[in-house]
Structures are given as C-alpha cells and as structure tokens.
Amino acid sequence: GMNSEYANQNAYDCIQIHGGSGFMMEYACQRIYRDARITSIYEGTTQLQTVAAIRYVTNGSYIATLRNYEAIPCSEEMQPLMDRVKEMANKFDACTNAVKETQNQELLDFVARRLYEMAAVCVMSHLLIQDATKAPELFAKSAHVYVNYAEAEIEKHFNFIRKFKAEELADYRL
Fold first, then answer.
1. Domain limits at 64?
2. Is there a domain that residue 73 lies in?
3. What is the number of other CB atoms lying within 10 angstroms of the CB of residue 37?
4. Under a CB-based contact definition with an 8 Å cutoff, are residues 172 and 166 in contact?
5. Residues 125-174: pLDDT tens digits?
6. Rounded distance, CA 157 to CA 151, Å?
7. pTM for the full predicted model
8. Rg of the chain's alpha carbons, rounded to an integer?
C-alpha cells in the first residue's frame, strides 16, 4: 500500500546514498530494502489505501499530527529546518482547505494521493529533525538533505493542486 511504497522509495534512496556498499550484508540498508519490497507484495492495492487515507486528510487528523510534531522541542541547530517544515505544513493545510472548500468528492479523490504525500514528507522531516536533535553526528546531514527534498515535493504538489481546476477532471476520466 501507500506506506510500503513510501518505504520502498526510502529504502531505494538509502541504497543510492550508500552506493555499492549499501547492498553489503553489514549495512542495514540491504535488510530495510528487502523488508520494504515484501510489504508491498503483502498489502492490498494502493488505490484502496488512498481512499482510506482521504478520511484522515479531510478530518484534520494529518494537520493535527503535524502541529503536534511542531510542538516537540528541537536543537538550536535544527530550528531553521523546523521553521521550513512548519511552512511546508502550512502549504499542506492550505491545499487541503482549498480542496475541501470545493465540496467536490471527485476532485478530492483525484488529489488525495498528493495531499497524503505532502503530509508524509512533513512527518518524515519531523522524525529526522528529532533524530538529529538527539544524535546530530548521525542525523544532521540527513535531516538537511531530506528537508531539501521534502520542500521540493511540497512545492510540486502545492503548485499542481493550487492551479488545478475541477473542470479539468473530465480530461482524466477513462
């Protein structure tokens, strides 16, 4: 499902970052990669899970989760990243509200995956900021690299959703 696809992408990126050594047995990457691959085979279709995820987008539970993460203290070094992630969450919230205000279920279904991915990269950013606060020598660089990536993902989805017009949905129907 969606989480396993996300795990697959992260595991793949992990191997990319480590290069050839990422496949060697003493690295956690190769185990994470195998675990991620099998979960996407076990789980149901991504489409069904997208439908389930929509509920959490629209009922405000994703933005509430992000606001809770924002309340967790971070190191002074990580504060500039935290500020950027808060801005990312604001863009996620703006997109969610704009789509909800249309009261168009088809539009919501169409952009649900993008909204879910926006929330997911924010959560991942927060988790890395927490890790980097506890162990900067292990996680500070990763936190910076990931937040740069996450910001680009947020921009991509933000621009798509903001500019998309409901009447364009007809072009996407089978």
1. 45-165
2. yes
3. 14
4. no
5. 999 999 999 999 999 999 999 999 999 999 999 999 999 999 999 999 87
6. 10
7. 0.75
8. 17
